[in-house]
C-alpha cells in the first residue's frame, strides 16, 4: 500500500501529466510508495453546462468558484476514507510553504489539494472545507496547479524509499541550515576556468575547512537571515566575526 | 514575432509537456505572444555515454553537472542571438523570486533557464555562465523544472495580450499590496452557510467599505509584513489602529 496518497482537484488535470510521468515521482509511483489521483471537479457540476464558477456578489471583475462542485467532489473522494485528510488550498494568501511544512505534511498518509485557476474561491470553501491555505511565494500565478506540484514533489522526496541514498545527500546539505559550498567536477580546467587548488590537494581536513567556510561566507553574503537559526560551532562564529571585521575595514 | 522567448535547458524535457499545452500558456503560444523552446542538454555531451555529470572534486555524496554540456548548449542556442539574454539558474541558494522580479524579467525579450536535477552545478557554470540565481522558496525540490515553470507562468501573464481583461482583474487585486477580501457567489445559502448580508444589500458604498476592511484585517492578521509597503489611506490607518486597540483590550 502507498505510504501517501495525493488527491488533486483541478479544472486542468492534463497539466499534471508531464510531472507525474517523470523522474522521481514516476519511480515513486512504480515502487508503490505514493499514489496520485487527479480529478477534474467540473464533473461534479450539476447543471447541463457544467458550470463551476459564477459572478461575485457585490460586483467587481473576475469569477468566483462555486461551493457546490468542490464540496461534492471532496465528499465523493472521501466517501470511503476513515478520516479527513488535510485539505490544502493553493493561494497567495496562505502561509508561506517551507521545508518544515513539507516535513509536517509528509507525516500524513493522505493529502488533498484544491487548485483554482484565475478565479477566486467562494469564501465558504475557504472557511468550511479547507484546512490549510498555502502560498509558495509572493508572486502571481495562473492557477494552483504548479504550487500543488511543488508541494507534491517536496513532500514525496521525504517519503522513505523515494530517494536513493545517492540523491538524499543533496537534502542533507540543505538541512544543515546553510547555503551549499561550491561544487566542482572534472576537468580541472575548462575554457581557462580552473578548479580551486585546495580541492585538488587531496588534503581532506583542509578541504573540509574550505567547504565549511565557503558555505558560511555564501550564507553570510546572500542569506544572512539563515545564520540566526543555523547550528554554528565556536569556530564558525569566529570565522563570521572575521568576515564582519574584514567588511568594516574595507 | 513573439514578445518573449523562453529557452529551457533540462534533462527532463517531457516534464514541461502538460504545462506548455494547457490554458494560458497554450493560448499565449497560439497567439504567437510567447515562444518556448525546451532543450535536453544531454545531447551536447561529447562522450559516447552522453555523460552530463561526474563525482565532485574533494569527495562527498551526490553528483555535479559538468561545465562542458551546459556551456556548449548555451553557445549553440545563442549562436544567432544579437545579445546575451539573462541566464537564470534555478537554485535554493538564489535570490527569492517575487512579483517584482517577475515584472523585471517580463521586460526582456529572451530568457534562458538552466534546470538541474538532484545534482549540483559545477561552480564555473554559476560564475561564468549564469547571470541570476533564483529561488522560489526555502524548500527542497527534485529539480529546477517546476521553479522554471513557475517563473515562465508568472512572467507570461505579464506580457501584454496574454491575459484577457477578464483575467487580469485578479492580478490588480493583488497589486494593491494587500491580501484579497473574501469572495462569494451564488447561492446565497449553501448547506446552511450564508453569504454576508451586506453583499446582498446592493448598497455599493457599504460593500466597498466592507471589502476594504476585510482586506486590511486579513492582511493585518496573516501577513502584517505587507502593511509596511502597501499604499494606505488615512481611513485605512484609522481602521488598523482600531484593530490594534481591540486586540489589546481582549
Automatic annotation (TrEMBL), chains A, B:
Q: Which InterPro entries match?
A: Alpha/beta_knot_MTases (IPR029028), tRNA_m1G_MeTrfase_C_sf (IPR023148), tRNA_m1G_MeTrfase_TrmD (IPR002649), tRNA_m1G_MTases_N (IPR029026), tRNA_MeTrfase_TRMD/TRM10 (IPR016009)
One GO MF term on file is: tRNA (guanine(37)-N1)-methyltransferase activity
Which CDD domains does this UniProt record tie to the protein?
TrmD-like (cd18080)
| EC primary class | transferase
Q: Which domain of life is it from?
A: Bacteria
Q: What keywords sit in the KW lines?
A: Cytoplasm, Methyltransferase, S-adenosyl-L-methionine, Transferase, tRNA processing
Question: Taking the first listed entry, what is the main subcellular location of this protein, grouped into a coarse class?
Answer: cytoplasm
Where found, per UniProt? Cytoplasm
The residues that the entry says bind S-adenosyl-L-methionine are 116, 136-141
Q: What is its EC number?
A: 2.1.1.228
Q: Name one GO cellular component term.
A: cytosol
Q: Known Gene3D superfamilies for this protein?
A: 3.40.1280.10, tRNA(m1g37)methyltransferase, domain 2
The GO biological-process annotations, alphabetized, read as: tRNA N1-guanine methylation
What is this enzyme's catalytic activity, as reactions? guanosine(37) in tRNA + S-adenosyl-L-methionine = N(1)-methylguanosine(37) in tRNA + S-adenosyl-L-homocysteine + H(+)
Quaternary structure and interacting proteins, as annotated:
Homodimer.
Database matches in PANTHER family? TRNA (GUANINE-N(1)-)-METHYLTRANSFERASE
- Record function comment: Specifically methylates guanosine-37 in various tRNAs.
User: Hey, which family's this protein in?
Assistant: Belongs to the RNA methyltransferase TrmD family.
Q: What is this protein called?
A: tRNA (guanine-N(1)-)-methyltransferase
Name the source organism. Answer: Croceifilum oryzae
Amino acid at each position: 500500500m502507498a505510504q501517501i496518497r495525493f488527491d488533486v482537484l483541478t479544472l486542468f488535470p492534463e497539466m499534471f501529466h508531464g510531472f507525474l510521468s517523470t523522474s522521481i515521482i514516476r519511480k515513486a509511483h512504480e515502487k508503490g510508495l505514493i499514489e496520485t489521483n487527479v480529478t477534474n471537479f467540473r464533473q461534479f457540476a450539476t447543471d447541463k453546462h457544467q458550470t463551476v464558477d459564477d459572478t461575485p456578489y457585490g460586483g467587481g471583475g473576475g469569477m468566483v468558484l462555486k461551493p457546490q462542485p468542490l464540496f461534492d467532489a471532496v465528499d465523493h473522494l472521501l466517501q470511503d476514507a476513515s478520516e479527513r485528510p488535510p485539505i490544502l488550498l493553493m493561494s497567495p494568501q496562505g502561509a508561506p510553504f517551507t521545508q518544515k511544512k513539507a516535513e509536517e505534511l509528509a507525516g500524513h498518509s493522505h493529502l488533498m489539494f484544491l487548485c483554482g485557476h484565475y478565479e477566486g474561491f467562494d469564501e465558504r470553501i475557504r472557511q468550511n472545507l479547507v484546512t490549510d491555505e498555502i502560498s509558495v511565494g509572493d508572486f502571481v500565478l495562473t492557477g494552483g496547479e504548479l504550487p500543488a506540484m511543488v508541494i507534491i514533489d517536496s513532500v514525496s522526496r521525504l517519503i522513505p524509499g523515494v530517494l536513493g541514498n545517492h540523491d538524499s545527500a543533496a537534502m542533507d546539505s540543505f538541512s544543515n541550515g546553510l547555503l551549499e559550498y561550491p561544487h566542482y567536477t572534472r576537468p580541472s580546467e575548462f575554457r581557462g576556468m580552473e578548479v580551486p587548488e585546495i580541492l585538488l590537494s587531496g588534503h581532506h581536513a583542509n578541504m573540509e575547512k574550505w567547504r565549511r567556510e565557503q558555505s558560511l561566507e555564501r550564507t553570510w553574503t546572500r542569506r544572512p537571515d539563515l545564520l540566526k537559526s543555523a547550528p554554528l560551532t565556536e569556530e564558525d562564529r569566529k570565522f563570521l566575526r572575521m568576515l564582519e571585521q574584514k567588511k568594516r575595514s574595507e
